[in-house]
């Protein structure tokens, strides 16, 4: 919730989830477009091999989720 941003709760949650998943071979995260730097601070990196099909492709382009329609 925007009213709760900046209080550190999100950082605590993500750090705890990463810790709980430490024994996994990989953790895949779906991030909100533009918020990638937040997750990069926890070690997440952009994948170059992911593919997706959106029901509303134009909206996905508009929201910055994919590069082209």
Written description of the protein model:
- The chain is mainly α and 69 residues long.
- 33% of the residues lie in helices and 0% in strands.
- The protein has three helices and no strands.
- The longest helix has 12 residues, at 9-20.
- The chain is globular and about 35 Å long.
- The N and C termini lie far apart (30 Å).
- The relative contact order is 0.11.
- The mean pLDDT is 91.
Q: What low-confidence regions span 5 or more consecutive residues with pLDDT below 50?
A: none
Distance from N terminus to C terminus (CA atoms, Å) equals 30 Å
The whole-number mean of residue pLDDT values reads 91
SS elements, strand count: 0
Overall radius of gyration: 14 Å
SSE order: HHH
By DSSP (H or I, 4+ residues per run), the number of helices equals 3
Beta-strand share of residues: under 5%
Supply the helix-strand structural class. Answer: mainly alpha
Major pleated sheet: none
Helix content: 25-40%
General form: globular
Question: What oligomeric state is this?
Answer: single chain
Descriptors:
mainly alpha, 69 residues, 0% strand
SSE order and pairing:
Blueprint: H1 9-20, H2 36-40, H3 57-62
Brief characterization of the structure:
With 69 residues, the chain is mostly helical. The chain has helices at residues 9-20, 36-40, 57-62.
């Amino acid at each position: 919730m925007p009213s709760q941003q900046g209080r550190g709760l999100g950082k605590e949650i993500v750090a705890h989830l990463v810790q709980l998943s430490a024994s996994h071979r990989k953790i895949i995260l779906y991030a909100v477009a533009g918020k990638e730097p937040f997750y990069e601070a926890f070690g997440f990196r952009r994948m170059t091999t992911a593919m997706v099909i959106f029901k509303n492709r134009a909206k996905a382009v508009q929201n910055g989720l994919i590069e082209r329609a």
